[in-house]
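Data availability (excerpt). The following record was deposited with the supplementary files.
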Amino acid sequence: MAYRNGWKRWGEKLTALAFAILLLASVSRPSLAQEGITVISNTYDSLFAEEILFRLEARSESEIEKIVLLYRIDGEEVINRGYPDFIPAKEVAAEYVMDLQRGEIAPFSEIEYFWRIEDAAGNKLDTKPVSFVYEDDRFQWESLTQGKVTLCWYDADRAFAQRLLDIALESLARLEEEVGVELEEPVKLVVYQSKADMLGALVPRGEVFEAQVVTLGTVVSRGTVLLHGTHRGVEKTMAHELSHVVVHLATENPYAGIPAWLDEGLAMYNQGELPGANRQALERATRENRLISVRSLTAPTGKPEEINLFYGEVYSVVEFLLKTYGKEKMAELLAVFKEGAAYDDALMKVYGFDQDSLDAQWRESLGLPSRGAIQATPAPAVEKPGGGLCFGMVPGLALLTLLAVLPWRKV
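Predicted structure:
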């Protein structure tokens, strides 16, 4: 999973407050109380991954001169604005088309909107807010909810959904038991039955990439995870992605994110046993004394030949911290990151050492000398990366890609 520097910004907080005030104002001022302005109709239509069409018909005693659509997606803190096409008149028909790219809005996102109308006489009207769910209308969906987890699926029986939901709940319980963090907000698991079905909900990555790589799971919004539900790796994928959701919610702040070795390490640890390809890469690098430093693991590697080693190392670093210092310290570390602390400062506050010292202790636990004692070693042979969340289908080569949290649409 790729990295972000937190979901919030102070400007977004202010706009969120403004949006809330606007909604309250619109509720407290019904259209009948607005002199001269009356809403005749207010409708919407959506076509998944193509467009959302908003329509408004209104009349006034004076010419309607200005209409603005204000909306937000899935509780985001940014107020989006749309300016519809219409001809100023005493009675108008306005239409705003939100053109969408594939994957731009996550399936089952809630969209909330209202119109702001002004006429030549200075009258203003904010319509009552309307909310609707943006569904992937290619399928007939069913849903099952337990606790804070809702699972959406299609073309399968309830037993299929219950099994996946049970796996999700077990994964969250394991994360709380072994790491000390729990899910703070509701999460939606959207389960697709095939690669082709799921592809229609993902951001385009190019024909060659999509033909060769199978995405098993990805976080697409604050609390929405897409899953390839019939793949044999769905259990580990679900545990991995849910960990990202839980950890991001537990550490979000307006200043900075957390290092990749911690985020991906916790996700790998929550999967359970380290996959064979990752363990082999870790063991080989340990034997050859060529481990990537913890400081260099603050962001995911961009080298395909290092992907297995990257995942093996971040798992090992997190495992070392948990087994050596316990889950209470790990929970404390995440809480300090929530305050916006820098990487080294957070470690120093909780453990009393920085990333370089962590690197030294971790290496020692693996039987390796300090980095100052490392001798030059031959360049490693290129390994075939495999294991993880995305598997390539190129003959002789399996590609793993780091899955990104998509930015929210902003206008």
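Summary of structural features: The radius of gyration is 25 Å.
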